[in-house]
Amino acid sequence: MATLEASSARDSISVNSHDTALCIIPPTHLWPAIDRLRSLYDKAYTKWPPHINLVYPFVRHDVLPSAAESIHSIPLELDAAGVFAHKHENTLHLHEDDATRSSRLSGLRKHVLKALGQPANNYQMHMTVAQTEDVDSSAHKLLLDKLRLLPPVRWEVDQLHILVRERLQLEGGTATSRMKIWGTIRLSDGDISRPEKPLGFYDKQLSLADKDQLRTSSPYYFNDEYDLWLPYDGAGKDLEYPEPEDYLQVSSYNVLAEFEWPPSEARHKLLRDDIFANTALADVLVLQEVTDSFLSYLLHDGLVRECYPYVSHGPPDQPDVEPLPSLLNIVILANFAFDWEFVSFHRKHKGSVVAKFRDGVGGNVFTTVLASVHLTHGLADGAVAAKKVEIQMLLKYLSETYPQNPWIVAGDTNISTSSYTIDAALKKKSISASTAGYLKSFDQVFADAGLVDAWTVTRAETGDVSDYSFDAADYEDDEVFEGEQGATYDPIRNPLAAAVVGTGFNMRPQRFDRILVRGQGLLEIRDFNKFGFRRNQTSDLPDATYASDHWGVRCAMKIVSTEEEEKKHKYSEDVSFLVVPVHLTKAPASLSAPGSVNECLSSLGVLPSNEEVDKRKIAFDLLKKVLLENKSNTTGQQQVVIVPVGSYALDVWTSASDIDVLCIGPFSSNTFFSLATQRLKKAAVASQGSLRVLRRVNANSGLMLELEVLGINMDLQYCPAAGIAQRWPDVLSTPASDPVWSLSAQALSKLKAVRDADYLRRSIPDLASFRLAHRFIKTWAKSRGIYSAKFGFLGGIQISLLLARVHKLLLVRESRTAPSIPDLLTTFFNHYATFDWQRQLVFDPLFHKHGSKLPYTRSTTREPLAILGYYPPSLNTSQAASVPSTRTIAEEFKRASALLTTAESNTAMTWTSFLDGGSPASNTTATAAADISSKVGAATYFLSAYKSYVKIDVQYWGLSPSRGRQFVGWLESRCVMLLVDMNRRAPGVYARMWPARFVEQEQVTAGNDDEEARDYQGCYIIGLDKLDESLSKEELKVASGALQTALRRFEEQMRGDEKYFDARSCWMGASMVNRGSLPPSLTVDAREWGEYTPGDDADESDDDEDEEETEEEDYDVQEEEAAAKKAKRGKKKQRGKKEEKKALPILPPGQKFRTAADVINRIRWDPELDSSEYIVGYEDRFLGARERALDTWKSEQTDEEFIPQHRILYFKRMKRASKLEDGEIVWERKTRRDIIFGSGVAE
What we know:
The protein has 38 helices and 42 strands. It is an alpha+beta fold. The protein has 6 domains: 4-206, Alpha-Beta Complex (Cyclic Phosphodiesterase, Chain: A), CATH 3.90.1140; 214-232 and 244-566, Deoxyribonuclease I, Chain A (4-Layer Sandwich), CATH 3.60.10; 573-605 and 764-934, Poly(a)-polymerase, middle domain (Orthogonal Bundle), CATH 1.10.1410; 607-744, 2-Layer Sandwich (Beta Polymerase, domain 2); 938-1144, 2-Layer Sandwich (Alpha-Beta Plaits); 1156-1234, no CATH class. The chain has an 8-stranded mixed beta sheet with strand order 13-12-16-17-15-14-25-24. Strands 1, 2, 8, 9, 10 and 11 form a 6-stranded antiparallel beta sheet that branches. Strand 28 (691-699) and strand 29 (702-709) form a beta hairpin. Helix 13 runs antiparallel to helix 25 (796-814), helix 24 packs across helix 26 (821-833) and helix 26 (821-833) crosses helix 27. It is elongated. The chain starts with a helix and ends in a 9-residue tail after the last strand. Mean pLDDT is 82; it is low at 1-10, 235-242, 468-477, 921-928 and 1092-1149.
């Protein structure tokens, strides 16, 4: 071959062809590190290989042989990055930073051009890697920094490549091109090698597998000897997989990348602290939005090297480690070795890092596959469609590659879940209706693939306690819409998220971050929590800033054997009989429209208005402010907690609901109520009537104040429990076995309401759906006359338990996806329509799943209806139910289910017409709608539905309205006893009581007059029907006589109670009447007569030992205040009270009467007394006075057979023929006789 010197004498050859190039191409083993960036940022990727143009443009194609002959080894190292600024874009490149080696390359170029007869011009050797648009932008500077982090590319240049351009025509007529190898020139000897036809560097279109392989690399492990992160190839013996553990924990955290130059490290320490918090530490950590700067910071931390010695990507600032490929990256860290691969989603920067690691227990070793995700962000048609494609591609890959393995999918899904956000975007036409459907179908897509949402499962079983990291009051202030429960992205509470979102409908909580598990019988979800609530404590960041705009999530999974998995869903033989499975029933087409239930309740005025919501919040805050006197519970002060319970706590209240308030503190009850009354009266004067104390009631559960705040009725109770208050609200998540719950039965009874409500809030899958469904069911129950717990029907807590059970089992055990509200209601009614109330219990098997049997024993004679709550002392919340009331509830469920069945053919039915008994929607007038919500319409129907009725008349004409309310309320509380007795005496008769008082219309009008209000006359109505149509006339006659006997006995009991019945001021009577004998003008009495609390009749000496003995009070505060203003009327009231007091028996003085508890302890522990010889006489709420042996008496408060001691009537010795004194009563409450201690009445 001719030398370069000889060739210089040849004729010149033009170098103006862009179809050829003379370039330097590195060895192919050096390509991946460069191509990982080029594939994302270089638009010439796949058209050109990694190369350095020596001469470009080069010679024409036809003179390439001559040029090749005109053209020994040169060392080259690309160890610097630079940029060429052009008019429309900028070229980012790598170049040689050594001047000596760079000059040799320039010299080679000069010789080549000289050989071609061309002058040498300016030349800057470079290898193009990326292009950017704005040279001043942070994105440009970040990318340039990423090039600088590339390890130096070194090789010995021993040949030059001549490339030619191949023109291509793609489908659709698009023109493109790519460079191919025409030949190579070996520099050592000038030998020219030329293939038969030009060779390409990449295929026409790289396959997905090739692209994924390009983005896949070896994980790194930390080597203590070298103090470096080194590639892990699995060859080292000391790097083998560790022994499998029983549990696997996976955490996921979006760390929020910042795109500012220079990179800020202000949040890095906060992120690091969050990652190593006790609530975040795991076996595997999946991070999203990781940048080079943050990963370098994190991997230099000694705690990371200790807890997570294996990582998918090494520290970018380590000289021999590549930078992360994208500006936003997914990185996996683990405390054991793993392999990983990249699965592309056919979009730049989008894909999944899929890790594989070994798990197992007891020799059953298997490979778990973890797919990390960070799906496309945004709520627009294109973004949602992209998410759909990405999910489909990932699930297809997992199904085809790992069909039998357990899967874990973890990361930021960016799937909008808030119904408010989706509906608002739909209304503003930001998304189409089909896109809204996609968003709601993603859960079903995951479920169809066998993936279970860890948050959903653990929330339904144990409850989500992560929200306690916020101020509880602040957290519950805002309305929660469907799909916002369990949010991990919350612009309302997280300033970083708010700054990213800005304003508009996106300013709602979303559950973006998820951990989905397909256990395959090998992994069982056990726990789930959120983390990342640590606030900024440094001066580098604004106050109250969190580390990220997302909360992190962690899931704990138990690695189980096949035998354990088979036992997972099995219960003991005793329990399995009681677990009734729930099956999804789709709503009829006419009732399935989205928003139809909401529209129904809105039209009925059931849903509270924003003004009502604000008013109640202000009223509750005012009460707290008055009771606490503006003193916050700071360090050093005794902790006092004031929380709502009941319907307000669950946010299922309606306009007619009271607010039940519980105060928990370290004081005694007497001290608290003395202070509370003093402060409330002081505030009442200052507020000029906006706050009033109505009544003071001594109930079974303890003292209670009835208040009116801003026109809203409130019931204030108190529980002395200093330990509970001090650990509030975290104490609610502690197990029942914790010593902090070692309290008296009375204290536990008060706390049960708040504990049950708290568990419901934490475990219900979607509170917004639950609340809407609850309000609908409550409206239905009212309209059908089965909403009143004191009459043995359903109350708010019973509806909550019934609905929560169906809601949770549907999601966890049945469909695994959140049901729509119409489907939830349809399933609810159909499920309980077939429920065997007599033999089965309503309980939550996801809560009561531990142990071989339920912590509850049912007495079918005393408890015909069993709807179990969650916490002791008494699990059954329906102890007031009777056989007739239970039968009525069952019949109404069957009726509702049948009505829904007819709706399948009745296309005109709406939810409003369903509540109206199935009448067509067009016939449901405004008046009828009002009747539905006020239960007037159904009550009117009830008065004409039966041929015979029992009518209980009640009349009061005394001077004290409070005594009248007490009398009427006491009578109401005893009506359940009448129903029980009627069913016992006449079991063939169906007795249905309407849970309200009826009055004649003129009584309602007269009730508006204060003078006439004292003269009260009303009645209670019980409908009578045959249970069996085959009953003969003789049998009916016998049943009628039995009912008359029951009514006479009921009258005797009521009139014989001197405490509440005074013939001088009240009267009651019970009789059987025909339908025609009922007054035609009867209507439901909406007045507040008879708001009686069971337990008002308890004697003052029966107070629980944990409460101070307080004098029983039940008086009207407003009545006394009015008496002070009006002397004449006040004197009459005082005279009336004195007359009533004179009617009470006056007992002779004696030693302080000892309590029943004292007597039990004395008999049991005094060696001179034999407990087996004594009997306890007590009052059964349904059967009246009963006796049982003292040795069988249950004193343990949590025992289901426990009977409160205030029901004990007497103690007596057993009758024995050998002893004359046998059968003698040794202690009696009524006469205050006590020969055990000698207390009470003096002999």
